[in-house]
Write a structure and sequence with these properties.
Layout (H helix, E strand, L loop, with lengths): L11 H19 L1 H4 L88 E5 H6 L16 E5 L2 E7 L2 E2 L3 E5 L2 E2 L3 H4 L8 E8 L3 H4 L6 E7 L8 E9 L4 E10 L5 E13 L6 E16 L2 E15 L4 E2 L1 E2 L12 E3 L14 E2 L15 E16 L4 E25 H5 L5 E28 L2 E21 L4 E5 L13 E20 L4 E19 L13 E5 L2 E12 L2 E13 L15 E14 L5 E19 L2 E20 L5 E15 L2 E3 L5 E3 L11 E11 L5 E10 L2 E2 L6 E3 L2 E13 L8 E9 L7 E3 L7 E4 L4 E9 L1
Parallel strand pairs: 5-8
Antiparallel strand pairs: 1-7, 2-3, 3-4, 5-6, 7-8, 9-10, 9-42, 10-11, 11-12, 12-13, 13-18, 14-41, 15-17, 16-37, 18-19, 19-20, 20-21, 20-22, 21-23, 23-24, 24-25, 24-26, 26-27, 27-28, 28-29, 29-30, 30-31, 31-34, 32-33, 34-35, 35-38, 36-37, 38-39, 39-42, 40-41
Main location: membrane
Protein name: TonB-dependent receptor
Organism: Bradyrhizobium zhanjiangense
């Protein structure tokens, strides 16, 4: 778990630079209308994917505009005259008609060139809102089940984090409408997907767009946006066998004011857990207005408020399989275990006691939650047929808190073998206050260079991120019974204060040039200036000067990508890329301390693959092979602040395919193989004992993940669709020593839809009734292991049933 809270404060130089930049953006917007008289006689259009075109003097067609905690030990044509290039559309994100794997959708996570996932020389996945509905995805953690080789964890200290391509947690960057908000283990929250238009995932090192921390990749959450046209309303509700319920309403379309479109969404999800007295209550309200000032200028504004109120499940204790009175389970954990948190013990075979599968060890007065407010605004100005300027200014305010017992560790020495055993518990309370604001501006230029169609984008971004933390330093602890814990109350608290400020400015360039009608070179480079300031005060308010506070440091990473795409035949595209990323060597930038190496680690990837699509666009497949290396990695280790792992190497392949074979039949499947290893990870611990993890696998990295599913729609008077899916996740480890294995598991889901046409409900265009069974075989398995809480694992949910209905009119 990694949490935090922050006081505003900006360096004078940064303030001036940011102010000047913001004013320039404002001036550009205010002068847009005046500049139209200087534009070409035909209204400009949104610039789109680069296409080679023959010389022409015909004007382009007009198109309608669219859219720290204290660490626990534990991403041509030739001719005599110049020819203006023909211009294609720069499509709004998510605007393209869906294909089986959604590769035709334009994304914001992989490039700022306005190209689709298919046209990007990397593995980019798009999980659309329709896909989420079809697959029963309710939260952002569930999104992992729809992506190739991805697993998700709801570790309470770092909710909604992912593992992919051999990396997890802070080694993946989370974006929100293209905006990075900070390390995912610090800022991630449980979130309902009802208000999202799509989730975009790019695999492997990619700091070009995502910024700091995108070693394993980046995940971008895109909210629903207005559309131009008749108003469409939608609503849904559902209820499950854990007594959880979910409901929402959305509306969008054109208003009576010409040029003004809107979108509004509201939802609530009471997500009840199978663990006693645990839940997450998720509420969200969002809205956006788009206004087309004229054919060349669109302005927009958006606001969103999210709130979650939680009583978290922190994990189920690992116990010795041969312990007195223990009722062992099979297939959940295996290997060898001795208590990590309390200093070891006799190595034993680990298990989960069958009597504790729903037991809650949290204190009775536990509470966690967050409130988040987003304000965003911007414009798109098509200055000419070939030049477009886009800008987004944003503000984000978040308050998060944790007040829990977090450690639940079976103590082998207190009573592990003598009696029924005792559970050692330890508290932590933490509050974050985060305030982020910034601007991202893109200048896009379509041109013809030596007869070759070319697109160039220059992006300037600047942000100020204040992150303040109030953290309990007492870590109050006690012991409770394994089977009947007297949960009690939190107890005393004494907080230290930590103030962190991160100022970031970046300049990036991307270019795509089509050397032929089928072969394109794509590349980009990002220059970044990151200034970190931290200070810390003990519970009595005294500056912790002896520990090196306050301190400041500056990072200047340079990252980028170079690659190609080659359509060797209709529907067959080859691609390759080399890309890089940078992030702090230790933990994440919000919890760096003056006593640890204040350096950046670098990562790179080599990737190649093929993307296939049938002529009728009813079938798609992708294949990729990758080799990722992250150097100079520092890994948290029990009893020591940090230890050096020379590097992490990750290699693997990913395969995905989907086909709408015949009318009504859909088939899909994917698989990912990965080998991720520590290299040169050896040290002498605090007790003088030599330790080596070289060749070991990082936590929460399965070597094999596979998904498959099928559905069939019966074309009857009341159309019925039935389907099922399977998910396999291989062995994983909950700590870098690889002693405790979280065993491989397979789960199955099944569902049925009934669509009721509008003839049955006057005024309702479409009604769908649905029934779903999750974990059909009631598989008992370990879903996630938090390497900071190594004596407990998070169990997957048992079988549950859900009924629901959705309406559109």
């Amino acid at each position: 778990m990694q949490h935090l809270h922050f006081r505003a404060g900006v360096t004078p130089g940064f303030s001036r630079a940011f102010l000047i930049f913001s004013l320039l953006s404002s001036v550009s917007l205010s002068s847009a209308a005046l500049a139209q008289s200087a534009a070409q006689s035909k209204p400009p259009v949104e610039i789109g994917p680069v296409t080679v075109s023959p010389p022409t003097s015909k004007p382009a067609r007009t198109a309608s505009p669219g859219n720290g905690q204290k660490p626990r030990s534990a991403r041509r044509s030739t001719g005599s005259k110049p020819v203006a290039p023909a211009v294609a559309k720069l499509q709004p994100i998510g605007s393209t008609v869906e294909t089986p794997l959604n590769t035709a959708v334009v994304t914001g996570v992989s490039s700022r060139l306005g190209i689709s996932a298919r046209e990007t020389p990397a593995t980019v996945e798009v999980i659309s809102q329709q896909t989420m509905q079809d697959k029963g995805i309710r939260t952002t953690t569930d999104v992992a089940k729809a992506a190739v080789g991805v697993i998700g964890g709801d570790a309470p200290g770092a909710p909604a984090i992912f593992s992919m391509r051999g990396f997890s947690g802070d080694q993946l960057t989370t974006l929100y409408n293209g905006i990075p908000i900070g390390p995912s283990t610090m800022t991630g929250r449980p979130m309902d997907v009802a208000g999202l238009q799509q989730v975009e995932i790019i695999k492997g090192p990619d700091s070009l767009v995502a910024g700091l921390g995108a070693t394993g990749g980046a995940v971008n959450y895109v909210t629903k946006a207005p559309h131009t046209g008749p108003i469409v309303n939608d609503a849904f509700t559902s209820y499950d066998s854990f007594n959880g319920y979910r409901a929402g309403y959305g509306s969008g379309g054109s208003t009576l004011i010409e040029g003004l479109d809107y979108r509004f969404d509201i939802s609530h999800f009471n997500d009840k857990s199978f663990i006693d007295d645990s839940y997450s209550k998720l509420s969200n309200i969002s809205g956006q207005l788009n206004y087309r000032v004229n054919d060349s200028l669109k302005v927009w504004g958006a606001a969103e408020y999210k709130r979650d109120s939680d009583r978290f499940y922190w994990g189920t204790p690992i116990v010795p399989a041969n312990g007195a009175g223990i009722v062992p389970t099979s297939g959940v954990v295996s290997g060898t275990w001795s208590n990590y948190y309390l200093g070891g013990g006799m190595p034993v075979t680990p298990t989960i006691d069958a009597r504790t599968l729903t037991t809650n060890y949290n204190v009775l007065d536990n509470h966690s939650g967050a409130s988040e407010l987003w304000l965003r605004s911007g414009f798109q100005w098509d200055i000419t047929n070939n030049i477009s300027l886009k800008s987004q200014v944003y503000g984000y305010d978040a308050h998060r808190h944790w007040f829990n017992n977090e450690i639940s560790s079976f103590d082998q020495t207190v009573g592990g073998f003598a009696g029924a055993g005792s559970i050692y518990r330890e508290r932590l309370a933490l509050d974050h206050a985060q305030r982020l604001y910034g601007n991202i501006t893109d200048l896009t230029v379509n041109s013809n260079i030596g007869g070759l169609d070319n697109r160039f984008v220059a992006t300037v971004a600047a942000s100020n991120n204040q992150f303040n933390v109030s953290q309990d330093t007492l870590f109050f602890n006690d012991y409770v019974d394994l089977l009947n814990p007297d949960r009690g109350l939190y107890g005393p608290r004494s907080d230290e204060k930590i103030y962190t400020r991160v100022n970031t400015a970046s300049l990036s360039f991307e270019d795509r040039i089509k050397l032929t009608s089928t072969f394109a070179l794509i590349g980009g480079i990002r220059f970044e200036d990151i200034k970190l300031d931290r200070t810390r005060f003990d519970p009595s308010g005294v500056l912790e000067a002896a520990k090196g506070y306050p301190f400041s440091t500056t990072f200047n990473p340079v990252t980028g990508r170079v690659g190609y795409t080659w359509d060797i035949a209709p529907g067959v595209m080859l691609y390759s890329q080399y890309a890089t990323a940078a992030d702090p060597t230790v933990a994440n930038i919000f919890i760096l301390a003056p006593s640890v190496p204040l350096l950046l680690t670098t990562s790179r990837t080599y990737e190649t693959g093929v993307k296939l699509q049938s002529a009728d666009k009813r079938a798609e497949a992708t294949f990729s092979a990758f080799d990722i290396e992250r150097k100079n990695v520092y890994v948290p280790e029990s009893g020591i602040v940090f230890n050096v792992a020379g590097k992490i190497e990750s290699k693997g392949v990913e395969i995905a395919a989907a086909v709408n074979a015949v009318a009504g039949l859909k088939l899909w499947g994917n698989a990912a193989f990965v080998q991720s290893r520590f290299i040169d990870f050896s040290y002498v611990d605090g007790a003088g004992v030599f330790q080596s993890y070289s060749g070991k696998t990082p936590p929460n990295v399965p070597n094999f993940v596979a998904n498959a599913g099928a559905s069939y729609r019966f074309d009857t008077t009341l159309p019925v669709e039935i389907g099922a899916s399977m998910r396999y996740v291989g062995d994983r480890f909950n700590f870098q020593d690889n002693m405790v294995v979280m065993n491989a598991y397979t789960t199955f889901d099944a569902f049925a839809f009934v669509d009721i046409p509008k003839t049955y409900f006057t005024g309702v265009e479409n009604t769908r009734l649905r029934f779903r069974v999750r974990n059909l075989t009631n598989k008992l398995y370990a879903a996630w292991g938090d390497p900071g809480y190594t004596d407990q694992i998070i169990l997957g949910a048992p079988r549950s049933y859900e009924i629901g209905a959705s309406f559109k009119w």
